[in-house]
């Protein structure tokens, strides 16, 4: 069975940092897209970062690109999201998602736009001022 398990969330003061982890199983990890998303109460789900495991190509929306970094460890089948300079507006439930095996090398932007169907349970990030 496929499984995604997020960890690393918590409560931090504004300006602080967190590193989220997503342990994946049941995927062709080096040849799959992986993404991080977040959803705050009353707001739509928002993509934060995406990466293609085979190449490491990544993508970030303008709203977060200077503050977050997505990375991967293929041997551990784990994807990380490093978040710096956190602000209260970053408060949300953060989810990781995994895409299917891809024969072709995909770009980070492709992975960001992918319609994911496999999701983790989420990890809460709370940033106080």
Keywords:
129 residues, mainly beta, 7-stranded mixed β-sheet, 4-stranded antiparallel β-sheet
Characterization of the model:
- The protein has 129 residues and is mostly beta strands.
- It has one helix and eleven strands.
- The strands form two sheets. Strands 2, 4, 5, 6, 9, 10 and 11 form a seven-stranded mixed β-sheet that branches.
- A hairpin with a 4-residue loop joins strand 7 and strand 8 (78-83).
- The chain is globular.
- The N and C termini lie far apart (41 Å).
Global mean pLDDT: 94
- Tell me the strand percentage band: over 45%
In total, how many beta strands? 11
Most strands sheet: 7 strands, mixed
Task: Work out the helicity level.
Answer: under 10%
Q: Write down the overall geometry.
A: globular
Radius of gyration: 14 Å
Number of helices: 1
Low-confidence stretches: none
N- and C-termini, Cα separation: 41 Å
Classification by helices and strands:
mainly beta
Order of helices and strands: EEEEEEEEEHEE
List the helices and strands and how they pair.
Blueprint: E1 3-7, E2 10-13, E3 18-25, E4 32-39, E5 46-52, E6 58-59, E7 68-73, E8 78-83, E9 92-101, H1 108-113, E10 118-119, E11 123-128
Parallel strand pairs: 2-11
Antiparallel strand pairs: 1-3, 3-8, 4-5, 4-9, 5-6, 7-8, 9-10, 9-11
Nutshell version of this structure?
With 129 residues, the chain is mostly beta strands. The chain contains 1 helix and 11 strands. Strand 7 and strand 8 form a beta hairpin.
């Amino acid at each position: 069975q496929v499984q995604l398990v997020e960890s690393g969330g918590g409560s931090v003061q504004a300006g602080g940092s967190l590193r989220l982890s997503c342990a994946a199983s049941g995927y062709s990890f080096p040849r799959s897209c992986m993404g991080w998303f977040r959803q705050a109460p009353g707001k739509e789900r928002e993509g934060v970062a995406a990466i293609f495991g085979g190449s490491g190509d990544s993508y970030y929306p303008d709203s977060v690109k200077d503050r977050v970094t997505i990375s991967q460890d293929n041997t551990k089948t784990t994807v990380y999201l490093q978040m710096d300079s956190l602000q209260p507006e970053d408060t949300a439930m953060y989810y990781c998602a995994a895409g299917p095996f891809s024969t072709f090398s995909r770009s980070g932007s492709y992975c960001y736009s992918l319609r994911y169907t496999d999701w983790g349970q989420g990890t809460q990030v709370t940033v106080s001022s």
